[in-house]
Amino acid sequence: MYWLLLGLAAAVGDAGADAVTKRFFSHLSPYTMGLARLLFAAPFLMLAILWVSTPSLDLTFFLTVAVMLPLEVTAMLMYMRALKVCHLSLCIPFLALTP
Predict the structure, then answer these.
(1) CB-based burial label for 80 (10 Å; 0-12, 13-18, 19+)
(2) Per the confidence metrics, is the pTM higher than 0.70?
(3) Nearest-angstrom CA–CA distance, 38 and 40
(4) d(CA 35, CA 40)
(5) Are 87 and 18 a contacting pair, CB within 8 Å?
(6) Residue 78: what pLDDT?
(7) What does each C-alpha distance from 59 to 65, 66, 68, 71, 97 come to in angstroms?
(8) Residue from 74, 88, 79 nearest 33 by CA
(9) 15-24, Cβ contacts within 8 angstroms, sequence gap of 24 or more
(10) C-alpha span between 78 and 65 (Å, rounded)
């Protein structure tokens, strides 16, 4: 049952991040909007490093990151552009179709 609370907290947090991004950063470019979201999350992710052990990383990991990074950056830029140009009620429901 703990997973349900974590899932709901993640959904509410993501919706809140979208609303804050739209409200306070929509006058900026999509590049800056994405960077603001990543920089806000960076301190929390740095704290998480203290509690997570690092597994051994091999060539497969780095190849996967090299392939996926351009796709992730493109998706983030397209997402920020969608937040910038349309209402939240129009662009956020499309996230239900993503894994």
Answers:
(1) buried
(2) yes
(3) 5
(4) 8
(5) no
(6) 93
(7) 10, 11, 14, 19, 32
(8) 79
(9) 15/92, 18/83, 18/88, 18/92, 19/88, 21/80, 21/83, 22/83, 22/84, 22/88
(10) 20
44-60: average pLDDT: 91
- Residues contacting 30, CB < 8 A, separation 6+: 77, 80, 81, 84
Could you tell me the two tokens for 71? 């796709």
- Classify residue 59 as exposed, middle or buried by CB count within 10 Å of its CB (0-12, 13-18, 19+): exposed
Q: Please tell me the distance from the alpha carbon of residue 69 to that of residue 66, in angstroms, as a whole number.
A: 6
Report pLDDT digits (tens) over 69-99: 999 999 999 999 999 999 888 888 877 777 6
pLDDT in tens, 19-40: 999 999 999 999 999 999 999 9
